[in-house]
Amino acid sequence: MRIHIAADHAGFELKSALVEHLEAAGHDVVDHGAASYDALDDYPPMCIAAAEAVVAEPGSLGIVIGGSGNGEQMAANRVAGVRAALAWNLDTATLARAHNDANIVAVGARQHSVDEATAIVDAFVAEPFSGDERHARRIGLMSAYERDHRC
Ligand SMILES: O=C(CO)[C@H](O)[C@H](O)COP(=O)(O)O
Fold this sequence. Notes:
Layout: E1 2-7, H1 12-24, E2 28-31, H2 43-56, E3 61-66, H3 70-76, E4 84-86, H4 90-98, E5 104-108, H5 114-126, H6 133-149
Parallel strand pairs: 1-2, 1-3, 3-5, 4-5
Helix pairs in contact: 1-5, 2-3, 4-5
The chain binds ribulose-5-phosphate (5RP).
InterPro entries: Rib-5-P_Isoase_Actino, RpiB_LacA_LacB, RpiB_LacA_LacB_sf
Catalytic activity: aldehydo-D-ribose 5-phosphate = D-ribulose 5-phosphate
Family: Belongs to the LacAB/RpiB family.
């Protein structure tokens, strides 16, 4: 699977570990930065770049990483067509896919060990959307709002 990944300084180390892990698992990972550690960098540009790439490539998934994952999720969700979910355990990771058809997962690198965060990402990537009518209906309502209200 093609996976677009981005992180600021707070997620930089975890991003490196995840790129290595996901590539070893056979995924095609595209790194949207940060390209190097900079303690003063800002997460929105790289998260938005990863989010735009996910939307441009249906079927791909995205991972955005920061200290909490909150701002990274917010930045990704600015891009039309993105459904980014902040996952903080295995259940929120799998539900993000099964119920919300999330195409991006946000992870807080300061909230988890590398092993925990890797398990959260693996759970997200492995879980399919359930396709249940009630979930598809709710996603459709969000998409309709996005279509009708965005410039
Ligand atoms: O999680 C984040 C945004 O939601 C950032 O990674 C976090 O705010 C960075 O903090 P600092 O600049 O103090 O290292």
